[in-house]
Each structure stands twice: as C-alpha cells, then as structure tokens.
Amino acid sequence: MNKPGVIDREGLNRLIQTLIGRGYQVVGPTVRDEAIVYDNVFSIEDLPAGWTDEQEGGTYRLKKRSDDALFGYTLGPHSWKRFLHPPERRLWQAQKDSLDFDIVPEQPDNTKYAFLGMRSCELHAIAIQDKVFIQSPHTDLHYQSLRQNALFVAVNCGQAGNTCFCVSMQTGPKVEAGYDLVLTEILDDSHHSFLIEAGSEAGKNILEEVKAGPAGAGEIKKAEEIVTNTAKQMGRAMETGNIKELLYENLEHPAWGEIAERCLSCANCTMVCPTCFCSTVEDVTDVAGDHAERWQKWDSCFTMDFSSIHGGAVRNSTQSRYRQWMTHKLASWQDQFDTSGCVGCGRCITWCPVGIDLTREVAVIRESTTCQEENFSGSEAQNENS
Amino acid sequence: MSGKSKPKVAVWKFASCDGCQLSLLDCEDELLALTEEIEIANFPEASRAVVKGPYDLSLVEGSITTPDDLSRIQEIRRLSKTLVTIGACATAGGIQALRNFKDIHEFVSIVYASPEFISTLDQSTPISSHIKVDFELRGCPVSKAQLVEVISAYLNQRTPNTPAHSTCVECKRRGTVCVMVAKGTMCLGPVTHAGCDALCPTYNRGCYGCFGPQENPNTISLGDRLREQGADSAEVVRAFRSFNAGAEAFLKESERHEKENQKH
Questions:
Q1: What is the CB neighbour count within 10 angstroms for residue A336?
Q2: Alpha-carbon distance A165 to A331, whole Å?
Q3: How far apart, in whole angstroms, are the C-alpha atoms of residue B157 and residue B151?
Q4: Which CATH architecture has domain B8-155?
Q5: Residues A78-96: pLDDT tens digits?
Q6: What is the domain partition of chain B in residue ranges?
Q7: Among residues 77-106 of chain A, which lie with CB inside 8 Å of chain B?
Q8: Against a cut of 0.90, is the pTM above it?
Q9: Could you say which of B151, B180, B215 has the minimum Cβ distance to residue A353?
Q10: pLDDT tens-digit profile of B162-197?
C-alpha cells in the first residue's frame, strides 16, 4: 500500500518546507561545537552535509567525509529525549494572597515537533519512554501532549559507529516501526537521492504533497543493501541471552568494584541515555516568600540525592550506584516495563569521560560465570544467543 | 516577616579578593527585594556602617591566614545564629592555599622589604577548620543565583537547592557538547561540584574546578584519564591546584601527580 518513492536533495528540502508549512517545528541534525546535535532545521542547508563522526569509548570526533551525505554520521550526544522530556521544566507556580495561596499548574506544551533523521534505535528508545510516561498509571501529560503532536521522519543508518550495538539489542539498524516517514540516503558518484516510504497516514499525506517520484527496483535493492551492510559494521556486540538472570545472580561479583575504580559517578551515561527517564523536583521560593515554583529536572541514579531517604542515601558507594544503573537498564527494566532499557545506541560508552563500556562489563561477568560453570561441571559453555 | 523586625544579616571578610561579596552587590534585580526582607548589619563592600551584633545570619568570605583571623572568626561565630561560608576561600582555603605546599617564610622574605612587620600563618585554611559552619556555598566566585537562593531558603526556612553532583549534569541539561569527549580538552567537570551552570564548557573551555570537589569525586580515575589524553603530570598538578587546591580530593590528586613528576 505504501509504495516507496524517490526524492532528491531538492525533494528533501520540499519535505522540510512542507513540514514547516504544516506548523511543525522541524528539529534535525546540525553541526555545533564540533559535534552533530539536534536543533531547529529550516532547510537542507542546516543539515551536516559531508560530515561524519568517529567514536570510541570516551572519544567522539567530527570528521569530513569524502562525499556530501546529509545523514552520513551515526549518532551525536543528544537524543530526542531533550525535546519530549525536557531537562528542566516548571510543573507549577504558587502565589500567596492575603489569606491563602493559589496554585497555577503548567499547561502541557502543545508544540508540534517534526524530528528529522531519527535512527531505528532512537525510535525504539521513544517506544520505551512511551511505556514509562504514557502507558503507566501516572501519565506525564506534558510528554503525552508533545508525543501525540510529534511527527517522526526516520533515516536508515548508512553506517554503524564503533560504539553501536543495535543488532545485539534487536533495535536496528533498519527502521521497522513507529515512524511516519523513513528515508534511506543513496549516494554514489552519479546521483544523490533518498528512498522515502510512509509508515502512517500522516506520513502518507505529507508524502503526497512532497511529490516523490516512483522508486525503481534498483533503488529499492540498493537501499536494502545499505542497511544490510550497516548491520555488519556494528562496533560492539552484547550477548543478551539470560542477561536478567546473569546479572541477578552476580550482584556481588568483583567486577562491580573494579568498575567503581574507574567510574566517575558524573552521571553522563544516564544523561545521554535515550531511555533514562529519572527526574528530581526542586521547590524554590522568591525572597519575599510570596511566590513559589516547583521545577522538574533530569536526575541520575549516580547522584547521592537520588537515593536519599530519611536517614541518608541508600546507595553510598559508586559500586552500588553503577550496579543499580546497569542492572536496572538490562535486567529489572524487563520486570518493570517488559522490555530491555537498552537500545544499543552506544552513547553511554562514547560519552563516558573514561570510556566505561557496558558491553564489555557484561561480557566480563558472563565470561567469569561461564568459567566457573566449566570448572564445576566440565561442561561446555552454553550458547545463549537469543 | 511582617510585624517583626527584619533578620540582621552581616557579611564578613577574611583573606579573599572580595569577589563573592561583590556577587551579592551584583544581584541587582533581587537586591531591593532582599533589603526589604533583611537588615544589612555589616557589609564592607557596600557600606562602612556596622550595626552591633548579635546577627541572625552571617555570610563569611575568605580563608583564615593570620593569627588575628583566628580570634576574629571565633567572635563572629559567637555573635551569629546561623553562619554560612561563601566561596572557595572560605570553603577550601582559596587560591592562597597554594602557600600550603611551600614555605611561607621564604615568600615573606622575598616579597616584603621588612618581613618583621608581617604576621601570617603558614597555612591558608577554610573557615570550617576553625568553627562550626551551618552551610557552605561553593564557587570562585559564588554564583549570585545560588547566593540569593541560600538567603531566600534561609528566610523561608527551607533547604537551599545547591546540588552537590558533578558539573557534567549541568552541561548535559544545557545541551553543551562534552569538551573532554569531543575535543580532548582537559576538563575537571566530572569531579567538580555543580553550581556555575557549566559556564566554561558552554564557552568551549574545560572546567577549572572553581566549585571544588563534587560529592563523590573519583579524582584518581579522572587524573589517569587526563594523562591518557596527553596531559603531563605537571599539567595535571596545576589543574588540581587552583582555587580549590586545599580541598581534600583535589589536594590528594595533585600530590599524587607531583610525586610522579618528581620521579621523572
């Protein structure tokens, strides 16, 4: 039903103009401060033409490509979380009058965002945050409003980064669900085009206005090859078989202490994670005490305040905090939300200042456990491919 | 506070550059509202007038560096119901704590024509080394927003919002690209107490650690990483020896790299 079409660079520009014309605030990749970050996009001129990134644990470098690809990078430090679940947001204000005080709740934000250039792992991350913020007993009305208004223009990854492992997490690289439109950038010596497909009624409607040309069998095949090829380039892999049991059975593993020697408890991993959703609230008053406000701010399980209850912080050591983060992300998240909390985007590896790599840490625990089992029974290590 | 007399607030200066006191004067928008709610009893940067104690709230700037300071801080504590130290000098000894690593008598003999007139201590120490401090506000200088927040919290009898987590949290909330990861810039942000709203990284500089160590500073891991990124041991020593050189976590890490530097 949704036949793929083909657009060129001008067609992509028409898509952006169409979205703006329909009242969307288009947000997409742009170059700022030697990185690709998500910001307002007004035309294809704002996109990172000819830029790519090289990533490793604790290292990100923006590099020039030999071509003019517009989506020829993997992932930057930002995720779409900062738009749907903003880092700082006022929840309500209170004003004192002579006898009492009035509470003025904040109205849900009804901005219409169109996100351009979303990757498969990022769509999966949003599906996870939907479970947290919408499909939970306590719906976040602000998130829900932004989410319902948002339009998603995804891109199939043309290359994988050194810290990518979406194949292991079954979250990519091919965009398969949750999108309104999906592009595949096809670039060779002779032409630069984008295969475009709609994934929703809204997407179809927009595509009609953009007027894509029909896609030939060659272009469809080429697009398939691109994403298949990307799947083979994953810089990292994580064995996920029985991962929940593995972590639950190793809560006292010496690896946690070893990680804590390196971990800065700086919270960067949680801030860049597209699924981490924790926040704190701060109550502020003005000097006179007539006006008060409550603000919600991104928080992290790596801060002391996070686990502070009557009597003090529950998780005092870095070891206990890292363990909390990783076991939640990979294990107890499954109990809580019926899905892993990790989409394999690799941001926590790249943006950790000391390059702590959760795929490696899981492997360390798994290998030592497998060794122990071998020692006990002499049996071969089980292949736990999920 | 209507109907009652306004709380008496005093600002005190010890060894410091006065920058933190000036932060209070810089609170232009809030200053009038503040003076509505408090009586300024002593504020050397603003007025020579001194109202006699006791004081409801004392804001103490500067570190203890002279024998006279030692007795004066005891007197101020005696006269103050609540005492808050403001800035890196008062909370960690300040830049002048660099003297702690050297022989102060050598400096005095080189710098002053008549060293016999100089009465000084051989260490610069934070206020909390001498008296009980009710709250410490970090920074070199303190953030004026946090200073107003502390006074406002005091007036409204609530806890001030001055999170002790890393500066990285502020960078990430602002959307600042990590200068350490994206450029290899030497940055103390991961071990530094938040409060400046990640000022330097937002302007493409590494964090200088003006707010001192965060609540759980892994300076050893960061120090090792800075070396891996190409800084030599002398550079790491200098990074940890600035406005908060005397703060324990920074002190230990600078000593570790200094020892290594001396080996080479």
A1: 13
A2: 17
A3: 10
A4: 3-Layer(aba) Sandwich (3.40)
A5: 999 999 999 999 999 999 9
A6: 8-155, 167-263
A7: 77-78, 82, 87-88
A8: yes
A9: B180
A10: 999 999 999 999 999 999 999 999 999 999 999 999
